[in-house]
Amino acid sequence: MGQEIESQNPPPLLTAYQMGKFELSHRIVLAPLTRFRSFGTIPQPHAILYYSQRASKGGLLIAEATGVSDTAQGYPNTPGIWTKEQVEAWKPIVAAVHEKGGIFFCQIWHVGRVSNCAFQPNGQAPISSTDKRIKISNEVDISTFSTPRRLKIEEIPLVVNDFRVAARNAIEAGFDGVEIHGAHGYLLDQFMKDQVNDRTDEYGGSLENRCRFALEVVEAVADEIGADRVGIRLSPFADYSDSRDSNPEALGVYMASALNKYRISYCHMVEPRMITVGERMEVPHNLLPMRKAFNGTFIVVGGYNREEGNRAISSGYADLVAYGRMFLANPDLPRRFELNAPFNKYNRNTFYIPDPVIGYTDYPFLDAVSYTAKS
Ligand SMILES: Cc1cc2nc3c(=O)[nH]c(=O)nc-3n(C[C@H](O)[C@H](O)[C@H](O)COP(=O)(O)O)c2cc1C
């Protein structure tokens, strides 16, 4: 079967796809990638080159996780989109992607308890669904996380509104849409997962209650900018930052079907095999039940290579495949997939350094002329 797909021309990943009003010329998506290079929460001019290198005509790019408010931050040098200055700084970056014909969504997030008082206004406690501190993290030393403060029920609409305003700001900055970050143990995930959410009000307990906050954000954002400009990322199977669920499949299927009501553009799901943000493992589950439950565009991510991506598309398992580390290291990934060319290897040591060039914009492009001549 693999060989049959390999010989298809064009390969399934390189076929066109209509995502609502967006005409995609291929199925290869840039996954959101935090790079710690936005000093003082302001996206920097070096991001213009970085994103435009990865843009292609009719290709979908998702920008790195971007804070919705001054309580949303939990890492150094990550961008925001709640101030005028941030919006202005995004504009030339978005324009550069559009110049190349790319379609650009902004991933908007609130980290919740994956934070520290030092990142919070007036040194206050980070907010969450709970007042329990993170006890286990595969990624970071847990002493970096402060004990959170449980959001009061009357504060929840204020956070929903922060997402709404951030989405409006993203459109103002020129983005084509937003991806709501509902994955990886951040605030929305802290509400959805039953091993974190210990609330007894209408935002805790049953599956329906735990998903209420995320769905309210979806509704508010869709009302604000139009459902066809909205996607969401979910990782029901992941347990990053101590955020896990006792029945991830039920959670994933519930969310996938509940989302249909809002008619949003896409649902972007992380493969269960992604045990940590950057490692894959073989597991018995897959995303088929969620794919079947969701009526819109279904994007999968997590450990995909060219062959598996082609198979996911040709079998109908997904509409689009997002690539993180491969796209980080190969700015011309769609072109390399098209030519079945070799890849640059990513360097993990430079993922999160503040350097504006090294490990960021210095990954080489394929020399297509000599590559074609050699092959
Ligand atoms: C350097 C780096 C930064 C990441 N930043 C984000 C992020 O901002 N938002 C997010 O949802 N996922 C983030 N992820 C996860 C990726 O989007 C993707 O899901 C993961 O790398 C698995 O895909 P891959 O196997 O193609 O790399 C990040 C991963 C890496 C390696």
UniProtKB/TrEMBL annotation:
Recorded GO MF terms: FMN binding; oxidoreductase activity
Keyword hit for Lipid metabolism: yes
Alphabetically ordered keywords of this record: Fatty acid biosynthesis, Fatty acid metabolism, Flavoprotein, FMN, Lipid biosynthesis, Lipid metabolism, NADP, Oxidoreductase, Oxylipin biosynthesis
Family matches, as Gene3D superfamilies: Aldolase class I (3.20.20.70)
Location of the NADH:flavin oxidoreductase/NADH oxidase N-terminal domain: 17-340
Top-level taxon of the source organism: Eukaryota
PANTHER family: NADH OXIDOREDUCTASE-RELATED, NADPH DEHYDROGENASE 2-RELATED
Protein name: 12-oxophytodienoate reductase 11
Native organism: Canna indica
Lineage of the species this protein comes from: Eukaryota, Viridiplantae, Streptophyta, Embryophyta, Tracheophyta
